[in-house]
Amino acid sequence: MVANKIEIxxxxxxxxxxxxxxxxxxxxxxxxxxGIIGPSNSGKTSFLRTLNRMNELYPNSRTxxxxxxxxxxxxxxxxxxxxxxxxxxxxALPLPLPLSxxxxxxxxxxxxxxxxxxxxxxxxxxxxxxxxxxxxxxxRLNTGxxxxxxxxxxxxxxxxxxxxxxxxxxxxxPCSGLDPISTxxxxxxxxxxxxxxTQVLVTNNVKQAARASxxxxxxxxxxxxxxxxxxxxxxxxKDKRTEDYITGxxx
Amino acid sequence: MMDARTKEKIAFNVLLxxxxxxxxxxxxxxxxxxxxxxxxxxxxFLFAMPREGMRAGGIFPxxxxxxxxxxxxxFFSIPLGVLAAIYLNEYSERNRLTRLIELAIINLAGVPSxxxxxxxxxxxxxFLGFGSSILAGALTxxxxxxxxxxxxxxxxxxxxxxxxxEVSFSLGASRWQTVRHxxxxxxxxxIMTGAILELSRAAGETAPILFTVAAFYLxxxxxxxxxxxxxxxxxxxxxxxxxxxxxxxxxxxxVLVLVGMVFLLNVLAAWIRARLRKKKTW
Lengths: 251, 282
Hints:
The complex is a heterodimer. Chain A is an alpha/beta fold.
């Protein structure tokens, strides 16, 4: 019996009157990498941003349904700031803050009250190592984060997410702007992180889901068409639409 | 029929001539003030009390009064304006109250300055009993300047990319933490520029201070915020219309000092902006 980290029940998201997500119901298992694929406008990002209540920042959005994190309703039973600390997100574009490399990673821990310099330095080093970028930046932690290449910036963002010690990491098309080598490095980092973290990877790159995820879900027009072991989804999909999408017949 | 090149030449020259026409008044004003006012600028003129019914001596009290007044305006208007802008930009949701506040701000900006003067007279001088004083004048100028500071601050806040806020929220930051650590540090240059420009405008205002602070003549410098003060714009008015036989030199010298003060504030604003822009990394 696998443990469920996140349980999603009857989840619906609207923007004004347009429903972006329809009656989602499935689970994210503990320490898995769940890939989510689907054409644009299929609700992947809205779904992801709902898991740490970032979607609420859009003033015209409305959410209904239940999402349980370790059995607790994220909309009612967990403070949203604490939720976002537990469920971190890596955005599509590398978004460093206009701070040094060190301060980018230390930003989150500082928010949550870590003040001691030694402790901060330790967190920064551990996070940068976990995101597989430590060796590239350890000699220039005080330079501006914008000096890094796009791929390095994205790994820095992963490190920044890790620094607040989340339990779940959400990735919103994390490699959409990156070259294949940077993409590979990020996928390797994700495999390392599997030991300790539950990860949800939204990607427009079907092959990336095939490579990186344990299970894959296929979204279409706000609905989840199919979810299953990645191997099965990519070899014997149950639904015709899934097959069409992964073989490149549409989307 | 003219060919395109000839038309282009004519268009260019007409536009150039019109543009020169626009800067002509500025050049004339500055030129005349400098030419007639500069000879008046001596250490005595800047740092001595007026003599002979303000026809001679210096304008020190008016300079000091203006300085105090600007300080007072800065003290009230910067915190108030910046905090209001932060509320409107970072906290408030788009609802009827917000729209009402925004409408009020726009309308506040359109009120003629003499109306502010009368309002200040009614509220601060009479009703609240501050009397004609630096306090009443500074508060009146503050109210007049609030729309400018609020608008400038909101523009500065809006130049900070939305994504910075998203990142901060995504790490579990509260709104205030996000404002304090991400938004404000990156908006400060714009806010300071706006605030200084507003102060320089306040320094030159005449109507709002007419009944709220300005004194015709005071034998000594103001001692507290409840004292009246001599201030440059009103002093210029007094010298040019209320006191007979004031030399043109003294009049223009006073004008030059006021224009110089405003100019220096503007240069300061530009300098801060340029300096901080160089530091910007995004």
